[in-house]
């Protein structure tokens, strides 16, 4: 099993329920293909660096998961089919990226405990 990270941007006009439903769709897809979700982060509504489909903002979401490489192609086809998603990127994490991701998660957890 390989480690992957997917960041996707959803349409800014979606309601909170629609955002949760969209995320659940992709999480359920991965779980249905026997992938293991290792981490999720909702980054919220953010301004885009450049306009995409005449939109200046979007809801960002991060998924980290372990899966077989064969499912990634079909996973990305699901993003293409969903009109609520305006951009996405999936990358395979090497050992250095995994270490960085772990440090980032620890930093996030200590920041949230301090609040």
Please provide a brief summary of the model.
This protein is an alpha+beta fold. The protein has helices spanning 16-32, 72-81, 95-114; strands at 2-10, 36-52, 55-67, 85-92.
Describe this protein's structure.
The protein is an alpha+beta fold and 115 residues long. It has a single domain, classed as Alpha-Beta Plaits (2-Layer Sandwich). 41% of the residues lie in helices and 41% in strands. The protein is built from three helices and four strands; from the N terminus they run βαββαβα. The protein starts with a strand and ends with a helix. The mean pLDDT is 91.
Number of strands: 4
CATH class term: Alpha Beta
CATH architecture, by name, is: 2-Layer Sandwich
Assign the CATH topology.
Alpha-Beta Plaits
Q: Report, as a whole number of angstroms, the end-to-end distance.
A: 36 Å
Low-pLDDT runs: none
Helix content percent band: 40-55%
Kindly name the structural category: alpha+beta
Tally the helices: what do you get? Answer: 3
CATH superfamily: Ribosomal protein S6/Translation elongation factor EF1B
Overall mean pLDDT stands at: 91
Strand order of the largest sheet: 2-3-1-4
Rg is: 15 Å
Largest sheet: 4 strands, antiparallel
* Sequence of secondary-structure elements: EHEEHEH
How many separate domains make up the residues?
1
Proportion in β-strands: 35-45%
Shape, per Cα inertia axes: globular
Architecture blueprint of SSEs:
Blueprint (H helix, E strand, L loop, with lengths): L1 E9 L5 H17 L3 E17 L2 E13 L4 H10 L3 E8 L2 H20 L1
Antiparallel strand pairs: 1-3, 1-4, 2-3
């Amino acid at each position: 099993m390989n480690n992957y990270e997917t960041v996707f941007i959803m349409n800014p006009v979606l309601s909170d329920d629609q955002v949760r439903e969209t995320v659940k769709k992709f999480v359920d897809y991965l779980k249905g293909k026997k992938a293991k979700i290792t981490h999720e982060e909702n980054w919220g509504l953010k301004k885009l660096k450049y306009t995409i489909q005449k939109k200046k903002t979007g809801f960002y979401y991060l998924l980290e998961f372990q899966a077989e490489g064969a499912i990634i192609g079909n996973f990305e086809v699901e993003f293409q089919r969903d009109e609520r998603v305006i951009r996405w990127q999936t990358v395979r994490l090497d050992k250095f990226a995994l270490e960085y991701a772990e440090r980032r998660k620890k930093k996030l957890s200590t920041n949230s405990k301090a609040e």
